Fold this sequence. Notes:
Elements lengths: L3 H8 L14 E16 L6 E21 L2 E20 L2 E10 L3 E9 L6 H5 L6 E9 L19 E12 L2 E12 L2 E4 L3 E5 L2 E13 L2 E12 L2 E3 L2 E2 L4 E13 L4 E12 L3 E16 L2
Amino acid sequence: MAGIWSALALAQEMEPRTYSAVPVGTNFIVATYARSSGDITFDPSLPVTGLQATINNYSLGYSHSFGMLGHVASVAVSVPYANANVTGNVEGEAARAYRSGMGDVRFRFAANLLGGPALTPAEFAQRSPDTILGASLSVIAPTGQYVPTRIINVGSNRWAFKPEVGLSQPIGDWFVEGTAGVWLFTDNPDFYGGTRRSQDPLPTFQLHGGYTWRPGLWLAADMTYYTGGQTSVNGLLNHDLQRNVRYGVTLSFPLSAQWSGKLAWSRGLVTSFGGNFQTISVALQYRWFNR
């Protein structure tokens, strides 16, 4: 498996309210812990079978919103750390591996194209929710721990980019959201055994529906589907085309005027290749406004 954290990050993406409105000058610091366990099917060209993993992922993120062309835009960065216990068979022999280290840093730029006007906190408090059409670009940089002599690594030793569009539609106290994007990958020029590993684009689709009781208190049902992402090593194509479906739920709740929490659970419904994980995560978020 090229990268524990990067592979998990791609497979577990089911984040509702990513295109919800916020006032300009909003800052968030988010600390997240996620525990995932399950089977992994990756790189059938490698002499590894029966792969199972328990992965603990910790991340610290920051985001800031600002006005751009009359709409709200935001920038965000997330720094992960992961440790994992992985078991399986290597060339027919039982083996166990433990990996621990910094993962690949992730960046995101997002902007509303329709709806979500640039409002101050006071103006935002008086607004009525409206339809939002947004777009974003996520980037994963090859900053994580990577040792080319290992089959299993924390980092992926390549860049990844995901352009995405999203639509958020309020319906009274209910909301429905959908996103469509595609992950694009550069090659890993120093893959296991001194080879070059390439990966085809990986289109992703998300659908969320939920209910809001009051600001900050909401519950969402989540589903994601991703397909493609076939890999090749030194130009030889692997039989690892992905057609995976995941589902889950997310609960957000306020703790005070500036603090909030989030709980999420998800698992695989259909997994052809990749991580068939059950994941439980908890996040603590602190918010403040620029003066």
